[in-house]
């Protein structure tokens, strides 16, 4: 099949659109499972950001003159499934928080890779509004990931044996 860069761009946007929608369903469950107040807040904040990111993707579809439509993101489905599997196996709250952070960071890294790619495609294809919107989301995802790293530093110490607390 002869695919152009624009075809790849559209495929990736559809993948992200579906991935973000899957995440809006998973984040409330993750927040509910989290023990740390700060971690709960981080998940809730990221849920609001994710909703904005979905709107931005819809604006990208607009610039491409396409109706917003997702294509099942198998990767996000797998990441969420793996995270859920972990949660079911753990009872200890600090350890559960550590596992939630790990699952969330895998999601963020997947998104950072994807948004970095589509941002660059948009730049190369001269979709300047899309480039701007995707860059904005990329920065939000990076910030969310950094926040999780910061929380992991605190929470994982507690999970390791309660040095702090
Ligand atoms: Fe996102």
Quick summary of this structure?
The chain has 165 residues and is mainly α. The chain has helices at residues 5-33, 37-63, 74-89, 93-124, 128-161.
Give a structural overview:
- The protein is mainly α.
- It has five helices and no strands.
- It has helices at residues 5-33, 37-63, 74-89, 93-124, 128-161.
- Helix 2 runs antiparallel to helix 5 (128-161).
- The protein is elongated.
- The model has no long low-confidence stretch (mean pLDDT 94).
- The structure holds fe (ii) ion.
- Fe (ii) ion binds at residues 20, 50, 53, 111, 141.
- Residues 20, 50, 53, 111, 141 line the site of fe (ii) ion (FE2).
Which key terms come to mind for this protein?
165 residues; mainly alpha; elongated; binds fe (ii) ion
- Individual helix count: 5
Helix/strand order, N-terminal first: HHHHH
Question: Radius of gyration from the CA trace?
Answer: 17 Å
Ligand species: fe (ii) ion
Uncertain parts: none
The end-to-end distance, rounded to whole angstroms, is 58 Å
Secondary-structure topology with pairs:
Blueprint: H1 5-33, H2 37-63, H3 74-89, H4 93-124, H5 128-161
Helix pairs in contact: 1-2, 1-3, 1-4, 2-5, 3-4, 4-5
Fe (ii) ion binds at residues 20, 50, 53, 111, 141.
């Amino acid at each position: 099949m002869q695919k152009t860069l624009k075809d790849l761009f559209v495929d990736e946007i559809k993948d992200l659109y579906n991935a973000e929608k899957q995440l809006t369903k998973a984040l409330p469950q993750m927040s509910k499972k989290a023990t740390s107040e700060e971690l709960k807040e981080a998940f809730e904040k990221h849920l609001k950001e994710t909703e904005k990111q979905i709107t931005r993707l819809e604006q990208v579809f607009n610039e491409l003159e396409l109706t917003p439509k997702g294509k099942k993101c198998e990767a996000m489905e797998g990441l969420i499934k793996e995270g859920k599997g972990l949660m079911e196996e753990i009872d200890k709250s600090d350890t559960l928080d550590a596992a939630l952070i790990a699952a969330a960071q895998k999601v963020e890294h997947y998104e950072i890779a994807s948004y970095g790619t589509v941002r660059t495609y948009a730049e190369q294809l001269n979709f300047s509004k899309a480039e701007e919107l995707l860059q904005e989301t990329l920065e939000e995802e990076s910030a969310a990931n950094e926040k999780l790293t910061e929380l992991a530093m605190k929470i994982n110490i507690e999970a390791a044996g309660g040095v702090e607390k």
